[in-house]
């Protein structure tokens, strides 16, 4: 009798415990939440990095947020969010906006190049080449787009490509005929010491439907898909990731090569207004490098180092290749400031 | 024998009954923890909005709340395509705020800024609601009815959460539940300034 009562009591107690386990809130509080903010054009790569890193580090929950590169940094420096790792599409932003208070090193790990993306259905898709793209874009009926230079780095890089094209193709009308003539108010261009300075209007407003200006890649890709535009200035990685055709531009104008850095430096874009108080309005042409760093105030510095180590490791490089993100050997500006675990993995940038 | 059986059954019922009661209490408590919002005491919002046009005016949050409001639906998406909303947004039309300091015309731009250093500039057409709109399901561009740009202070019936720009955020709203680009939804707005466009 007593045994039966005890058995029943044990069963009931087990049932209560199981109910608690099921019904009470259950979460991943035990995992370390590593906050990683990244530039929007890295979204495909970083989704893969997140999956693989978490599978190798099951005690870490990588929490990712994608933004424009300046916004990535501002979330830490101006909005004071807790951010452990930051990855941007313009390596120069890290020293400009974060040194010395928020960081004192960066590692470059990837690059990119500007292309003219299109689909099979785009007008003159089988005719456009690296030699005639600027003429095709001006043809009646052809529509193209680029992102707003004030909101997205790909936008001001589109302007740089168009201006650099004038010297390369020895044709001083390219910027006006492709870009400027489509806007009212329009751009002003001045030249100083062999450098072209392009001054944007406050508000960039196309006069006709020939040119579409959108906030970023997401909208331009949708327009290409739907046939709303025929061509878009894009990063090569984004074009490839979305299965688009593209025109490979000469390295002298596509912002891909350190060999042509002096040439790129000869174009400056003056944005229409200062969207961020912490960053000026001037953008100088330079090769595209993606860079990563760890916040000096990182809440999880050890896990942050492991994450950066993963990004620049052979596994990380493999993922870059798989996601069509051109990689570069990891290089740093300040090897002495690097966490020790990273020092043997990178070379110093030769200034 | 029968008596012994009866005795064990008699002891069993209270034990079983107590356990059932325990399980029920635990279930209710778990449900309460999961669903009951933490009660926060109502707080006053100490935030001034500066309007600059042909004169300067500073309005408190309470003064803004007493102005005739507009309610519509709208949301936005981020650089990487993350959709926020659509929400039910209540606030004051930007055009009406501009009217308090002289009004705007096609020669003006409106500079909206926040204390975190963020600034966005809008032209006359945008103040009148001229934006591209997108389908929340697939981010494809879609046509839209009348849109109104408002200084939002209430979202889905509640004061704006801190992360969404409390107490004020720019919102672009209409009757349909459509999205606009996130860069226009300036958070923590503290100043709206009318300027003459430098481009004529």
Question: Can you describe what's shown?
Answer:
- The complex is a heterodimer of chains A (351) and B (200).
- In chain A, the strands form 3 sheets. A 7-stranded mixed β-sheet of chain A has the order 2-1-3-14-4-15-16.
- Chain A is α/β, with parallel strands linked by helices and 351 residues long.
- The longest helix of chain A is centred in the first third of the chain and has 22 residues.
- The radius of gyration of chain A is 25 Å and the shape is globular.
- Chain A has 13 helices and 16 strands.
- In chain A, β7 and β8 form a beta hairpin.
- Chain B has 200 residues and is an alpha+beta fold.
- In chain B, 25% of the residues lie in helices and 34% in strands.
- Chain B contains 4 helices and 13 strands.
- The N terminus of chain B is likely disordered.
- Classes of the chains: A alpha/beta (351), B alpha+beta (200).
- Chains A and B meet through α1 and α8 of A and α1 and β6 of B.
Mind sketching the topology for me?
The complex is a heterodimer of chains A (351) and B (200).
Chain A: H1 2-23, E1 32-39, H2 43-56, E2 60-67, H3 69-77, E3 85-88, H4 93-98, E4 107-111, E5 114-118, H5 133-136, E6 144-147, H6 153-168, H7 174-178, E7 188-192, E8 195-199, E9 211-214, H8 217-226, E10 231-235, H9 236-241, E11 245-248, H10 261-264, E12 267-270, E13 282-284, E14 289-294, H11 301-312, H12 314-322, E15 327-332, H13 340-343, E16 347-348
Parallel strand pairs in A: 1-2, 1-3, 6-9, 6-10, 8-12, 15-16
Antiparallel strand pairs in A: 3-14, 4-14, 4-15, 5-10, 5-11, 7-8, 12-13
Chain B: H1 2-35, E1 49-52, E2 56-59, H2 61-66, E3 70-77, E4 83-93, H3 94-99, E5 108-113, E6 119-123, H4 124-127, E7 133-134, E8 141-142, E9 147-155, E10 158-159, E11 169-174, E12 179-181, E13 191-196
Parallel strand pairs in B: 1-13, 3-12
Antiparallel strand pairs in B: 1-2, 3-4, 4-9, 5-6, 5-13, 7-8, 9-10, 9-11
């Amino acid at each position: 009798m007593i045994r039966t009562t005890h058995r029943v009591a044990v069963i009931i107690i087990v049932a209560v415990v199981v109910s608690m386990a099921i019904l009470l809130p259950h979460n991943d509080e035990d995992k370390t939440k590593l906050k990683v903010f990244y530039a929007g054009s890295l979204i495909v790569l970083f989704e893969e990095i997140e999956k693989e890193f978490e599978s190798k580090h099951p005690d870490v929950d990588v929490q990712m947020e994608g933004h424009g590169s300046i916004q990535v940094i501002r979330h830490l420096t101006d909005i004071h969010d807790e951010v452990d790792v930051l990855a941007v599409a313009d390596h120069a932003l890290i020293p400009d906006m974060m040194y010395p208070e928020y960081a004192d090193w960066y590692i470059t790990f990837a690059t990119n190049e500007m292309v003219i993306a299109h689909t099979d259905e785009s007008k003159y898709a089988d005719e456009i080449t690296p030699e005639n793209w600027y003429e095709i874009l001006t043809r009646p009926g052809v529509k193209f787009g680029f992102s707003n230079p004030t909101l997205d780095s790909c936008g001001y890089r589109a302007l740089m490509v168009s201006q650099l094209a004038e010297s390369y193709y020895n044709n001083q009308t390219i910027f006006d005929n492709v870009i400027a003539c489509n806007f009212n108010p329009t751009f002003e261009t001045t030249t100083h010491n062999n450098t072209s300075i392009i001054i944007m209007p406050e508000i960039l407003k196309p006069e006709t439907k020939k040119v579409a200006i959108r906030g970023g890649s997401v909208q331009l890709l949708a327009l290409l898909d739907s046939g709303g535009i025929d061509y878009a200035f894009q990063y090569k990685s984004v074009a490839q990731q979305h299965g688009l055709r593209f025109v490979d531009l000469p390295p002298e104008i596509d912002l891909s090569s350190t060999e042509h850095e002096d040439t790129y430096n000869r174009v400056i874009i003056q944005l229409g207004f200062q969207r961020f108080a912490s960053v000026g309005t001037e953008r100088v042409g330079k090769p595209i490098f993606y860079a990563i760093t760890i916040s000096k105030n990182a809440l999880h510095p050890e896990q942050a180092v492991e994450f950066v180590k993963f990004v620049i490791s052979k596994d990380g490089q493999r993922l870059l290749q798989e996601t069509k993100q051109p990689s570069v050997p990891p290089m740093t500006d300040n090897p002495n400031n690097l966490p020790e675990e990273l020092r043997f993995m990178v070379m110093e940038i030769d200034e | 024998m029968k008596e012994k059986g009866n005795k064990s059954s008699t002891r069993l019922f209270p034990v079983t009954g107590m356990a059932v009661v325990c399980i029920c209490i635990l279930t209710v408590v778990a449900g309460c923890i999961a669903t009951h919002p933490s009660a926060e005491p109502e707080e006053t919002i100490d935030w001034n909005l500066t309007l600059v046009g042909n004169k300067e005016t500073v309005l408190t949050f309470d003064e803004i709340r007493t102005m005739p409001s507009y309610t519509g639906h709208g949301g936005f998406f981020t650089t990487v395509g993350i959709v926020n909303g659509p929400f039910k947004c209540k606030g004051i039309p930007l055009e009406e705020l501009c009217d308090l300091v002289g009004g705007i015309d096609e020669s003006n731009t409106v500079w909206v800024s926040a204390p975190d250093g963020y600034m966005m500039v809008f032209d006359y057409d945008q103040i009148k609601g001229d934006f591209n709109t997108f389908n929340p399901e697939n981010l494809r561009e879609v046509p839209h009815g009348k849109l109104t740009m408002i200084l939002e202070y209430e979202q889905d019936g509640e004061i704006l959460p801190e992360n969404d720009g409390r107490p004020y955020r720019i919102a672009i709203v209409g009757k349909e539940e459509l999205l606009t680009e996130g860069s226009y939804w300036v958070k923590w707005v503290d100043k709206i300034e009318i300027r003459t466009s430098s481009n004529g």
